[in-house]
Each structure stands twice: as C-alpha cells, then as structure tokens.
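User: quick one, fold this
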Amino acid sequence: MIALIIGISLGLVVILTINILKHLDKELIYGLILSGIGFLYVGFTWSTVASLIITAVQAILFLFIAYYGVKKSLTILAAGYFLHGIWDLVFGMFPYSSLIPPHYDLFCLSIDFTIGFYLIVLRYRNAKSVPL
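Assistant:
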C-alpha cells in the first residue's frame, strides 16, 4: 500500500513540476520518461540472459511507443503508460521477477497510471480548446 501512495505522489510531483516549467515541450518530456522507465528493468535484470532479452525487448518496444506518442498523439503516449503499468504487473509472473526491488511493481504501476490518466485529461482538454 505504501508503494502505491509513494508512486501516486511521485507521479503528481512529476506532473506538477512539468506544468510549472512552462517552456518545456510536455509531450517530449513524457515521451522521454516513458522510454526511460522501460530501460530501468534492463538495469535490474541484466544478470541472466533470458531476463536481459525479455526486458531489452520491452524497453525497445516502449521506446518506440514513446516516439510515436510524441510524434502522433497524446493518446498513444497515454496508452504506453497504461501498457507499461500492465507490464509492471505481468513481470511479477516471470521466474526472475525477484531481480527487481521489492514492491517496485506497485510503485511503478501507480506512477504509470497516474501519468497515463493525466495525459488522457490533457488530451481531452487540448481537444476541447481547439475551435471547430
């Protein structure tokens, strides 16, 4: 439970920080974060070949999702965060899931979902502000 609270809190701190820094390209920053969090798993699990291959593939997949999200749509970027949150849960079923820190799955899932929900809100808000 504490991992969820810390994750949601950190997600909100990230969102607030990015909003305070108005001159930043928000979509690019969120894309960079999404691509980076995929590679954290590689850093945790490089000690076995099987886990290295699986986590490297997921990291590259999230890199491409982040890229297309930045280039095409906030919806793709938000979907990437939700998919990464699901990955956090699914990874716990792998035999080498013990290589990641305790409760990292819930911590990371809560950050992913917090930012994903915010990106959906941002996308909706941006769509409403565009004149027809």
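User: anything notable?
Assistant: The chain has one domain: 2-129.
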